Amino acid sequence: MNESKLSRRGLICGATVVAAGAVAGRIGAQDEAKEIQRVVTNGRINQSVSRWCYRNLSLDELCQASAKIGLKGIDLLNPSDFPTVKKYGLVCTMASGGGSLNDKAKHEGTIAKIRENIEAAAEYGFPNVIAMAGNHNDIPNDVGIENAVAALKQVAGLAEEKKVCVCVEYLNSRVDHPGYAFDNMAWGVEVCQRVGSPQVKILYDIYHAQIMEGDIIRTIRTHKDLIGHYHTGGNPGRNEIDETQELYYPAIMRAIVETGFTGYVAHEFVPKRDPLTSLAQAAKICDV
Length: 288
Description:
Mean pLDDT: 90
Low-confidence stretches: 1-33
Order of helices and strands: HEHEHEHEHEHEHHEHEH
Helix content: 25-40%
Structural class: alpha/beta
Number of helices: 10
CATH topology: TIM Barrel
Strand order of the largest sheet: 1-2-3-4-5-6-7-8
């Protein structure tokens, strides 16, 4: 966004946000800022937000708003972004990483990228690096699992040494990512169990899982020890996580708290309304 053209935008308060007193302060270019009141008061869920969903805001703007709302960090950043996040007292809750774990022909680049970002995250004390399973293409599922295990074993030692968790993301193959290999929980569970490292876990994206399998709370409880990170998103559409969609996030968040999870839950929905109003609303919904 051209900061010189950034105008003051009124926060459109939904009922949940009004009840929370969510709107008040300033953020934006040239001191035309938005006042935002802290909505996270319980703090039993460590919340963050995915950078890519807020492309019309600079990283500085998103960091300022997130800190005021009460979020702990920003998800899915490159190492070049780390100094900005740290400047606002936030954490990069999930660093970028490598894709195509299931394709041996792509292992060299995938492994190198994951290792590079483990080192970068560790330097800043940040906790997680993402890894992607890759698409099936012509790779049989059992071979893809073997390849993913082999690749992750090559980074697990470094992850353990640096105390950084490599999180393999669950995506849906029905709507958004046709052909993606890790589109069911059994795939990720088998891979992580065969790698056998406490620093290799699953990024459980609730939006994607709802499309493929549903049964969200039971899955969280069953596989709590293998889940290292969560993403939110409303279904259908990957938009706001309020009453406009089918998932009931307060119950999901309570289930996460009950498992003793101490990692991060990152909001990864694309707002259809004023973005910071929707982000504040989501933070309030998940502050169980």
